[in-house]
Amino acid sequence: MFKDRFISFLTFEKRYSPHTIKAYEMEVKGFLDFLEAENVPFEEVDHKLMRYYFSLLREKGKEASSVNRAISTLRSFYKFLQREQLVEKNPVRLIQALKTPKKLPVVVEKDKMNQLLDHMDATVDDFESLRDFIIMELLFGTGIRLSELLQIKESDIDFYNKKILILGKRNKERFVPLHLTLIEELKEYLEKKKLQNLENISEYLVVTKEGKRAYRLLIYRVVKKYLSMITSQKKRSPHVLRHSFATSLLDNGADLNAIKELLGHAGLAATQVYTHNSAERLKSIYKQAHPKA
Fold first, then answer.
1. Domain tally for the chain?
2. 226-260 tens-digit pLDDT
3. Which residues belong to the active site?
4. What range does the domain containing 11 cover?
5. Of 15, 78, 177, 289, which sits 20 to 30 A from 265 (CA to CA)?
6. What CATH number is associated with residue 17?
7. Helical (H) or strand (E) element with 158
């Protein structure tokens, strides 16, 4: 099946993350279901039918960003079909992405995060609470992605050189430094992990209470639980901690290129969004503090 070949291409040649591949697979499946309902073979699709399909997504309440993801996915899909000589033209090639409002990254203030981490540290009383503390410390202390956190193995931590090996997007490796407090916390966590005496305990750093490798939903639950203690904002995801890490560094004078390397961004454009976020926060502080603002 050509869909399966496309997914294999993304997995083994493009080396996309499992999360990205799942998103692509769902988008392609939705489109193929649409074609089946319309009784149109995939090789006969033209740009008019593609426009109709994307307009249907909008009518169903899809956000512009979601429609843009569908456009990007199906453009890649038909580009692959061209490569495989299954179609002659790419019907998505000339379709433009929808305009979307620019949103600044959602962050949690550094002082609030420090208070939360101090509270968590003081209330650790078992392996699970220590693991949750390590999850929050790593996400906020290194700015790594959720997918990267789940990839960390115990052997990736270099205690002597105070750094950790991170496997990023498309299997690109980078080292991220660890501060002294986090190093000591990781040592304590690993010691307690050994003392659990669990059968077949995973070599991965973050594990469940049964000792198995942690999963995405577990991390989401932990982050949402603890961020709910310090903020009422709607978005309380692991990526909020990544944004908070980057914004804190920028506010404290870190070089933008250094932040780019720490975050594992391919280009500087992705990192520059934090300069806008920092500027908006300064405006907000100015309005609150200045008597004539």
1. 2
2. 999 999 999 999 999 999 999 988 888 888 899 99
3. 145, 169, 239, 242, 265, 274
4. 2-83
5. 78
6. 1.10.150
7. strand 157-158
